[in-house]
Design goal:
Length: 121
Amino acid sequence: MTHHNPTDDRLSTLESRVENLESRFETIERVFSSEIIEKADAHAAACQEDPRQQFEIGDTHDVVISDMEQDYNGKTGVGKIDGVVTFIDPTETEIETGDVATVRITDVKENALEAMALSRS
């Protein structure tokens, strides 16, 4: 007569659960490629950084104009400087989507920059 050992049952159950979790983890790894994870990590880091610590009024930067938006003052260019959304006033220099513009930062907000277009190339 064989003796039934409850420890063997628990061990078998745990091994089965570990295999199931390993399988699920492999599926998750396939779904979330490293590129997606890197983008999510970069976005999370950017959200935690305060642009007021990185930029100063008067700084100049080159920025690609990714969009032109209509606001109460007319059109405003939109781009990013080091990952921070930047709203660009085109009053002094006409800019269009796709242009690379040299801009001067005019205001640094908690989650965005405001700038004036100085020239475009």
